[in-house]
Amino acid sequence: MNEPGYFISFEGGEGVGKSTQSRLLGDWLADLTGREVVLTFEPGGTALGKELRAAVMHGQDMGARAEALIYAADRAHHVETVVRPALDRGAVVITDRYLDSSVAYQSGGRDLPGHEVEHLSLWAAKGLRPDITILLDLEPAAAAARRAGADGKGALDRLERAGLEFHTRVRDTFLQRAAADPERWVILDAALPVDDIQAQIRVDLSARLGLTPVVAEAGALAEAAAVAEADAVAESLGEDRS
Ligand SMILES: Nc1ncnc2c1ncn2[C@@H]1O[C@H](COP(=O)(O)OP(=O)(O)O)[C@@H](O)[C@H]1O
Ligand SMILES: Cc1cn([C@H]2C[C@H](O)[C@@H](COP(=O)(O)OP(=O)(O)O)O2)c(=O)[nH]c1=O
């Protein structure tokens, strides 16, 4: 029988470092454990998902319910065709956003009832919840400044245009959900340097997965995980996701 799969989600606002940290974590876990690691993301982690992503992020204006249903459709297909099969093979799956994004954005941000959005997501995902969710917490203004530094040229998508109040409600919803379920969530300060955040993630994951102590190694990471590398990673992931 396969080793059981392990499901990790990264959550937080736009530009907080989710793709940077998920890639660094994936490389480290694959090297250390030899397990299959699947890196994926929502919305748009499948071919159908790319079309749904384009519609919801760059398409016509739409109401909150239509938006929630598109994210749920993306999730249903993503779980059925990518996440669940990988977990069944015994892989570690790392997703950049999952159902907590729906609750934070479509409920906290757009004002739909939280339990309805969560229920819709769980229905779409046939009840699949992450084993651990890493929240990269950052003030929306700081995240916006970071994104502007990364590619000030790019046009803002529908969600990015939503404004500071919207993004503050999104952040507060993430923090409330994390506080309510500390077993599943790890809250990290996304204003710290890339390598410090990654070191904290590795220490936490080592404990949860029963890996050999890596505290010393995590300290040495300060030199290893160069921000330049993280930039390249973020860029290459970003290319897939206009
Ligand atoms: N801890 C950090 N400190 C400073 N800049 C960061 C940090 N983490 C990521 N970045 C940079 O911020 C930008 C957004 O990072 P990214 O990983 O794409 O975030 P997300 O996936 O959450 O949108 C990139 O230019 C990236 O290099
Ligand atoms: C998965 C998901 C994302 N979103 C939003 C959050 C983002 O604005 C956008 C996805 O963008 P994403 O590519 O994750 O942005 P970033 O890498 O900058 O964080 O979709 C929802 O509103 N609901 C959801 O369920």
UniProtKB/TrEMBL annotation:
Pfam family, one: Thymidylate_kin
This protein's UniProt keywords: ATP-binding, Kinase, Nucleotide biosynthesis, Nucleotide-binding, Transferase
Catalytic activities: dTMP + ATP = dTDP + ADP
Annotated Thymidylate kinase-like domain residues: 10-201
The protein's Enzyme Commission number: 2.7.4.9
InterPro entries registered for this protein in UniProt: P-loop_NTPase (IPR027417), Thymidylate_kin-like_dom (IPR039430), Thymidylate_kin_CS (IPR018095), Thymidylate_kinase (IPR018094)
UniProt GO MF annotations: dTMP kinase activity
Domain of life: Bacteria
Residues binding ATP: 12-19
HAMAP family: Thymidylate_kinase
Functional summary from the UniProt entry: Phosphorylation of dTMP to form dTDP in both de novo and salvage pathways of dTTP synthesis.
Protein family per UniProt: Belongs to the thymidylate kinase family.
Record-given protein name: Thymidylate kinase
Organism in which the protein naturally occurs: Promicromonospora alba
This protein's encoding gene: tmk
